[in-house]
């Protein structure tokens, strides 16, 4: 299970098994989506599979997740999603009414994101060989001229901004899965981030890096960017917004909210001269109202993320080995 968690084990699987087998310069970039040229157009192309358990959770369901997860991957290249494919793998015995609810939620999420489901596929597997419903979505979108957003563009001096509170999706899943109550309701932050990215690009097209911190959470996203660009990242621990209910839940469960998955947040690496304008644009958008500057890129300790603690010390923020909460997306 750890190999599917978005941490060090996932990275090893990609590096030693998939990348050598598939090869190719496009894949080697290993971004949230691939940037490809087709005719005269520059496209972002991404695919994702969703195996979340339970199928329905506070703030959404696997249908919303399947749309938003893929359109957000495209948005992290600066692209606005245009078309999606959708594949359903159904387990024998799943109620048709549940499949209908999921399909309706998926369609509504697609319309909200401004993307069309253009093609699809359905397969059914025997009882005991699935978990109700699995969904795969692939998406394509156009990247505007003058936009070059990728992990390798992070440079010392960049300001690191997160679009809002972290950890909500993973805790919402756990609350339903384990029947736990944490004193306050926690809902998934599942949302399509294309409009927020458009607002940021309107402030400046010189965004260096965008990443949605899904599996492995904020810590994994920062480590992946630091490694890709060979830069150090310093995060101010107090600056990272963590909702009280998430903090309480993580304390009870022995989890670190920095490693808990999100489905409606992004991390941005922005040139310092544009940081104030980008932050203001984010805070003016509903999905960025809680945006905060949490750190910066530095020349020291390339490839490593460190946190400045409230007591003035520092700690290393490692890439997670596997996944604290399996089957969260």
From TrEMBL:
Pfam families: AIRS, AIRS_C. Residues 32-143 form the PurM-like N-terminal domain. Residues 156-301 form the PurM-like C-terminal domain. It comes from the Bacteria. GO terms for biological process: protein maturation. NCBIfam families: hypE (TIGR02124). Belongs to the HypE family. This is Hydrogenase expression/formation protein HypE. The gene is hypE.
